[in-house]
Amino acid sequence: MAxxxxxxxxxxxxxxxxxxxxxxxxxxxxxxxxxYFYPKDFTKxxxxxxxxxxxQFEAFRDLDIPxxxxxxxxxxxxxxxxxxxxxxxxxxxxxxxKVCKSYDALIPLIKMPKRITYLxxxxxxxxxxxxxxxxxxxxxxxxxxxLRK
Length: 149
Description:
This protein is α+β, with helices and mostly antiparallel strands and 149 residues long. The chain has one domain: Glutaredoxin (3-Layer(aba) Sandwich). Helices cover 33% and strands 25% of the residues. The chain has 6 helices and 9 strands; from the N terminus they run E-E-H-E-H-H-E-H-E-H-E-E-E-E-H. It has a 7-stranded mixed sheet. The chain has a two-stranded antiparallel ribbon with strand order 6-7. Helix 2 runs parallel beside helix 6. The longest helix is centred in the first third of the chain and has 12 residues.
């Protein structure tokens, strides 16, 4: 079950690719953004989803909407994944799964992130959500559709 549309997006502070830390309360203050959770770098579905975000990145950039990917993988793995697939957006590391859990993006028994994407509005409320473990391209199309409303 995903967070409901209109609910407040939980704040987070996570290490990111590019030797940064992203604090949603300060770095993204007053800014809408895409936050997508995915199970694991270098897996077929996750690679497909990341590359689709990459291929559609210009549309998000033109709308001034940052895209952030989150999994439990470490920064070193994220850096390799980002470089290998030429991803123009940051990947955040949530090794404990705390942020994944706060966004209801963690599969309970196996503690692996779900494939779920949130559009967070400038007031940091959930504006849209798409959750489907097997339809990686649908996440991007759903977010673009919601942004163009």
